[in-house]
Amino acid sequence: MLGSGILQGLAVTARNLVGSFHDPARYTTQEYPEVLPTLPENYRNFPFLITENATDPMGTLRCVACQICEKECPPQCIYIEKSKDKKPDANGKMQLYPAVFDIDTSVCMSCQICVEVCPFDAIKMDQVFAIAATDRFTGLLLDRAQLAKPNTYYHSIHPTEATEVDARLAEEKRIAEEKAKAAAAAKAAAPAKPLPGGQAPAGQPGGTGQPPPKAASAPVAPAPQPPPPAAPGS
Amino acid sequence: MISATPESFLERLPLLVGDLIARVVPASLLWFVTSLIAIVAILAVFGLLFAFLTLAERKILGRIQNRPGPNRTGYFGLLQPFADGIKMIIKEDIVPRDADKVLHYLAPVVLVSLALMTFAVLPFGRHLVPVELDSAVLYFFAAGAATELAVFMAGWASHNKYSLLAAMRALAQLISYELPLLLSVVPVVMLAGTLSTTGIVAAQGGWKYGLIPHWYVLTPWGFAGFLIFFTAALAESNRSPFDLPEAESELIAGHLTEYSGFKYALFFMAEYFGMTALCGMGVTLYLGGWQAPCAFLEIIPSYLWFLAKLLTLLVLFMWIRGTLPRLRIDQLTRFAWKFLVPLALINLGTVAFWHLTLGWGGALQLARWALAIAFVVGPFVLMGRRLSAGVAPRTYRYAP
Amino acid sequence: MTAILAFIALVMLGSAAAAMISRNLVHSALLLALSWLGTAGFYLWAGADFAAFAQVIVYVGAVSMVVLFAVLLTRQNPVGDVLVEPASRKRSTAALSVGACVAAVLSAAVMSSSFPPASVAAPTATVKQIGLELMGPYGAALLIVGVLLTVALLGAIVLAASEPERNPEDAP
């Protein structure tokens, strides 16, 4: 009969109207500032620097100012100045640290290349999107202090990645320590072995020079592999 | 609880106010002062009603569409109409360079003033008619018909071929639906025996067994007539599904394209005033005006009953807007001329039958009702089948 | 009372004169509608409210639409202004002389006819009385007008519905 479709339509909209007061399926609005959206884990926005220890952020940055991310960044939004001195890193090795580390978030395109190429898992992608500022050049240019966030924060936003990175770094640390122990044992055992004159004393500074690059290169080889599976997934 | 029988205080309040004014104001100025008070009261009440109608429309449409509607300005968005008003007032008033300045300025003014003039004959309560005219219904539709001229003026003065085209389409729609509108009013006038709105409301007074009112909508011909009137009122006030003249996806805003700021607000206001006035007339003609539905519900004053019925019809307007898609211009003109006009004419015949068989008593009353229902439903079904042959109902076959 | 009548007459005649004088065709049509509104005001002043509202519905609401549609659909010039040829003095003398003749004839007719004094009370015709008059003594006139309108409507439908013969090779 003519008009039956109209009546069915009216019934549908009436059900929507009445249902929107008590049925959450019929009220799909999330009122934004009061209800924050649930972001997927692989959501990324702008990068941030990881510090091991929240109480001393500037002193425990993982970044060693190798400047690889600065060179690989497509829009060139990272600016790094190396420090003049060295500080010990998590494995006890003396590393440089970035005196200035600026990211211009108005230029950054969130491509995550800096994360993929970082050999030290020092820079990761953050999930904060509410960074509106009134001035483009001061408000959106984030410096080292604003970029440094603790590892616990990284765990809270990207749990699976963070546990995997921590496991890998712990593994590397373990290998480095074992190598150091083996080297120390070798060093302790080496003076017992008679060697040609110039080699034994020369071997020691050389000996301490060589194994660490090998130990350092061994973790570098597996390191690029885990980020690529994360990159297509993010 | 204060009872509101015809002699109670709340009902007689307007009369008491009138007496007070008559005592204060000298006789020579009395007519002027009472008219001025009536005008100010109508402007204030219906202006506020317009403001909260816009908000109610947005909230109701929002809830129908699973979202809240405006809820940021004030609690539940109650300050939204005032925010909209401020926005409209402070916007720049742009007049196209080649536009006809006089007509461009006059069109919204004429439209709003004519829409407001239609409120003068609506009986808002037992003692609350602004102007009591013998041919009140005719006055109402005269003022409504003159608004079409303002639509043309708006489209022509904009010096925009798309506005002109849209104004022509809007005029075609308005003229097409004048006929069902007036034809659905004729049966009511026939049965009530008068063109005066107060007379029509009085003719629907009284209750059968104190419970069932004698409103015309509760008779077969009245129900059909009310539906035709309601549809034609939707079309006359350019509301969905007949909102082709002002739809944003057609010709931008139609004849309103070149209007900005407060003139646009005036057009908007004129549309809502027209809608409210037509709903008020529908309430008067078919829903018994200010009469209460049952005898014991006369506790509530008559103007509150009018307001309740008016708000029900307006919410029905909004509900339909949220449900139905827009009709094309050829679909809506075809609907008016080929469907509504013949049905309204047949309805006239049904009313004549109803009136002539008033004397049938007892068991013949059932026959009278059955025949009247057959005269109403039969042509509707038959014409519906004939007009939608080959078009409806659609059978949908979905991919497995 | 005469002040109101003078004002209504001014509106009615003034807008008609302005409609004659105006160069813009659409302005003329709208001023004509204003003149009809003035006529409706005159009916209201004379107490014939039914006639006044019927005048508004029929003339301002419908006939003005017809006039405007006719104006818009039959325009030759793209711009709305009507071209005026020169030799305006010849035209103005012709206009004035014709106007004076018509005025003379009309005023002679008005002066020479006798207006009997009106009865004590003006007749107040309610709508019911008008209806009874239309159904009774003037029933024949009403039916003839109805037939005329129906014929006009049918003619319009026939004219609108018939499509011209198309050469099948032309574009649709």
Strand content of chain C: under 5%
Q: Mean pLDDT score of chain B, rounded?
A: 88
Tally of contiguous helical segments of chain B: 12
Q: Could you estimate the helical fraction of the residues of chain C in percent? A: over 70%
Total beta strand runs of chain B: 2
Question: By helix and strand content of chain C, what is the structural category?
Answer: mainly alpha
Cα separation of the termini of chain C: 63 Å
Total E-strand runs of chain C: 0
Residue-averaged pLDDT of chain C: 85
Shape estimate of chain C: extended
Characterise this structure.
The complex is a heterotrimer of chains A (234), B (400) and C (172). Chain A is an alpha+beta fold. Chain A contains ten helices and eight strands. In chain A, the strands form three sheets. In chain A, strands 6-1-8 form a three-stranded mixed β-sheet. Chain A has a three-stranded antiparallel β-sheet with strand order 2-5-7. In chain A, strands 3-4 form a two-stranded antiparallel ribbon. In chain A, helix 7 (159-189) packs antiparallel against helix 9. Chain A is elongated and about 105 Å long. Residues 198-234 of chain A have low confidence and may be disordered. Chain B is built from twelve helices and two strands, in the order H-H-H-H-H-H-H-E-E-H-H-H-H-H. Chain C has six helices and no strands. The N and C termini of chain C lie far apart (63 Å). Chain C has 172 residues and is an all-alpha fold. In chain C, 17% of the residues are buried. Classes of the chains: A alpha+beta (234), B mainly alpha (400), C mainly alpha (172). Chains in contact: A-B, B-C. The B-C interface holds B 100, 103, 133-135, 138-139, 141-143, 145-146, 148-149, 152-153, 156, 164, 168, 171, 175, 178, 193-195 and C 24, 26-27, 30, 33, 37, 49-50, 52-54, 56-57, 60-62, 64-65, 68-69, 72, 126-128.
Could you list some keywords that capture this structure?
heterotrimer, B: 400 residues, mainly alpha, two-stranded antiparallel ribbon, 12 helices, 65% helix, C: 172 residues, 6 helices, 0% strand, extended
